[in-house]
Amino acid sequence: MAIGWYLVVSAIIFCIGAGGVLARRNPLVVLLCLELMLNGANLALIAFARMWGGESGQVFALIVMVVAASEVTVGLGLIVAIFRRRLPIDVDELSELHG
Amino acid sequence: MSAVFFFIAAIGAISGALGVVMLRNPFYAVLALAGHLVSLAGLFLLLRAEFVAFAQVIVYAGAVMVLYVFVVAYVGGGEALPSGAVLRVLGPLFGLALAIVLSIAMLGSSLKGIQGKGAAYTLGFGTPRHIGTLLLTKYLFPFEGASILLLVAAVGAVVLARRRRGLEEPGDLERPEAPRIRAISPGYIGSMAEGAGVRLPPRHEPVESEFGPVGAPGQPDGGGW
Question: Domain limits of chain B?
């Protein structure tokens, strides 16, 4: 398959994730949609690594996976803390930092 | 043959992504994301990124998804929240607009390599040997930075999620302290203070060992460190 097909799939996954981050209100699902966006970027990185024949893109993809794992850890810790305080688990209600 | 596998994996990945966004129950959304990640690993394999594909399955679809499932089970998933009236329309519209812009950018790109199948395959491309060599030579600094980032995230998650005073509701603060269970410890417990020469008295009653009672009673408790 041509590399362009992989790029199209990665763009579709990224856009689905971006739409989901905006549309959903449950912070858990927002985190899942962020994962989708990062994975779309990962697919593009690996497709370009295949296109150029170098492995640097794959190393970048691994680093992106590390960043995603850190983000999940801190995000889920925040959700557990929100749940402990019995606040509503809803990104629209949690607006104390709104200004 | 690779085209068949590509379309199977691509359809799996895209339908998994759609499932994450559309399913109302967060638990099913997590399961859809796991399916999406496995399909994406198939795409990585087609692109000869073997190490990344297996790391994806083991780290992402294995460990991270287990974390998600635990938190969804702990939080309870919550009732399905309807999204706000404005964003319910604007979110998908924004995604669609972004997709159109990205497609225009890709179709209008003058990169010749996009139409091709990629560079010629060299033996060992994408194997753990090559990736590990790159990580420990050319990309050593990002590698170390990533490990520091993981450490900071782990410590941060512990700090965020631990149970502490002042965060509970006011009613919870008057809750009586749970009775401490004090285990009967022998006089010599192998702590660092004892290693430095400070013998601690036994907590409750001296344990009769074959060397006789250890620790002198009556001394103040110096703590376990």
Answer: 1-78, 127-161
Question: Which stretches of chain A drop beneath a pLDDT of 70?
Answer: 99
Secondary structure, 3-state, B86-101: HHHHHHHHHHHHHHHH
Residue B209, SS3 per DSSP: strand
**What's the pLDDT at A92?**
76
Helix, strand, coil abundance in chain A, percent, nearest 5? 80, 0, 20
Q: Which of B52, B41, B64, B132 minimizes the C-alpha distance to A57?
A: B52
Q: Are the C-beta atoms of B27 and B69 separated by less than 8 Å? A: yes
CB contact under 8 A, B20 and A12: no
Length of chain A: 99
In this structure, which topology does domain A3-98 adopt according to CATH? Helix Hairpins (1.10.287)
In this prediction the ipTM stands at 0.91
- Mean pLDDT in residue range B190-201: 61
CATH 1.20.120.1200 fits B1-78, yes or no: yes
Q: Phi, psi (5° rounding) for residue B210?
A: -70, -15
Of B10, B46, B84, the CB nearest to A25: B84
Domain map (residue ranges) of chain A: 3-98
3 state DSSP class of B208: strand
Q: Do B21 and A67 touch (CB under 8 A)?
A: no
The secondary element (H helix, E strand) that includes residue B212 is: strand B212-213
Residue scoring higher pLDDT (B202 or B32): B32
pLDDT tens digit string along B57-103? Answer: 998 888 899 999 999 888 876 565 665 677 778 888 998 999 899 88
The residue of chain B with its CA nearest to that of A8 is B103
Q: How far apart are CA B225 and CA B217, in angstroms?
A: 18
Query: How far is CA B126 from each of CA B7, B60, B67, rounded to the nearest angstrom?
Result: 22, 18, 28
* CB contacts, 8 Å: B152 with chain A: 70
